[in-house]
């Protein structure tokens, strides 16, 4: 049986949830987009730096703070054991009554702010800092693909932040966005 060596199913859920959230939101997105993108895009576009270096710096420093907040959420009472999808019935106050889920939601908000700032910087750099003789279709593939991915993140991240905010409101302020008893939809 899975998790039989742990003798605690909550700990198994905590490990799986923490691993997934850290890998997706704090390894893949910041390292692939932020790390390699910030290194390779200026090289490929032959520019000295990204278009907004201070926004780039802010985006960078939000990631470790969000990661620390997410790590602390694992040590608060029962920890976050709701799965990486943060499915609404499993994140409700009845299932996870401790503040660990709130800390994880705040950490994901900070990670989302970092991704939006990085995405704005990528789009701006790919469009505004190319060499004047280069047309858009002559820009190398990686900067254009990162700019398109960044555009998709700019569109998607506020929607995800809104859903996380609704979860936070359901947990702490007795709203019923995801509660079927109050007229909400858990799916």
Automatic annotation (TrEMBL):
Q: Name one GO biological process term.
A: electron transport coupled proton transport
**Entry's transmembrane regions:** 20-41, 62-84, 104-123, 144-169
Which Gene Ontology MF annotations are present? cytochrome-c oxidase activity; heme binding; metal ion binding
Looking at its record, which EC class is this enzyme? translocase
The protein's topology relative to the membrane is: Multi-pass membrane protein
Localization per record: Mitochondrion inner membrane
Which is an annotated Pfam family here? COX1
* Highest taxon above the source species: Eukaryota
Q: Where is the signal peptide?
A: none
* Cross-referenced InterPro entries: Cyt_c_oxase-like_su1_dom, Cyt_c_oxase-like_su1_sf, Cyt_C_Oxase_1
Hey, which pathway is this one from? Energy metabolism; oxidative phosphorylation
Reaction equations catalysed = 4 Fe(II)-[cytochrome c] + O2 + 8 H(+)(in) = 4 Fe(III)-[cytochrome c] + 2 H2O + 4 H(+)(out)
Q: Which PANTHER family match?
A: CYTOCHROME C OXIDASE SUBUNIT 1
Q: What protein name does the entry list?
A: Cytochrome c oxidase subunit 1
Name of the gene encoding the protein in the UniProt record: COI
